[in-house]
Amino acid sequence: MSDFLAAYLERIALPLPKAVTLEVLEQIQLAHRMAIGFENMDVMLGRGISVELPAIHAKLVERMRGGYCFEHNALFGAALEELGFPNRPLLGRVWLNVPEGVVPPRTHTLRLVELDGAVWIADAGFGGSYVPVMRLADGAIAQTADGAQHRLSRVMESTGEWVLERAGPVGATDGRAQPHTNWQRQYSFDLAPVMPVDLEMSNHWTSAKPNTRFTSAHIASIVLPNGGFAALNGRRLSMYSGGRADVMELPSAADWRRVLGDLFNIELSVEEIDALYLF
């Protein structure tokens, strides 16, 4: 086992898996999402976001920080590869809160995993809710511990385009979801090969384009035990646990920093919190 993998497994509090199975893949993804927060604080601090694996490992593993999809899924994919799960990146379009008639850019990345003679999608870097490992099959449905259902559909066979939908409690999301009974598009993707330069370009747009979600709001999320979910948007903290949703405003910078560390596993200094100009 490499030092890279050993440090990653320690970060997500998971022992070295002994097999290459669907159950192990699901365990790794869930452990990752429960241990490493989703966040964009470096964007809001005016820092660049690197998609180079050593830089991602140093940030998310060594410095106890979080990141967004380009960081999470690069780290996740590299660990899966070393553990014997062949995988590659995909690029997708996130459809949450997108106005009618607008096509969003490709600002999301996930992993395509080969396992047991089948192909699966795995995603440790979607901040809107918890997306389970799913077999890539038209009409495939999977349920998560929060009570939500997720559905994959092939929408354009000619281009290989797929869409992931969710129907579940709004409280177990970052607040952009519709009610439980409604299927809502989360993101779409195709299976075209994705090169490092494609990820670099999408990451640059996501981290630098003015007035977008990632450059105008302080956001974080993390999966909690037993189907729970927590999300932070500015000073607004929402938590879902045991079927109950709670929302509160964090009153001070000290409270905000404490919640960021204790709940989201994201360590920022007092000086960094001050530089976010939230209070």
TrEMBL record:
GO MF annotations for this entry? Answer: acetyltransferase activity
Is Membrane one of the keywords UniProt gives this record? no
- Gene3D superfamilies given for it? Arylamine N-acetyltransferase, Cysteine proteinases
* Keywords associated with the record: Transferase
Tell me the InterPro entries matching this sequence. Answer: Arylamine_N-AcTrfase (IPR001447), Papain-like_cys_pep_sf (IPR038765)
Q: Which domain of life is it from?
A: Bacteria
Q: Give the protein family.
A: Belongs to the arylamine N-acetyltransferase family.
Q: What is this protein called?
A: Arylamine N-acetyltransferase
Q: Which organism is it from?
A: Novosphingobium umbonatum
Question: Which lineage is the organism of this entry classified under, starting from the top rank?
Answer: Bacteria, Pseudomonadati, Pseudomonadota, Alphaproteobacteria, Sphingomonadales
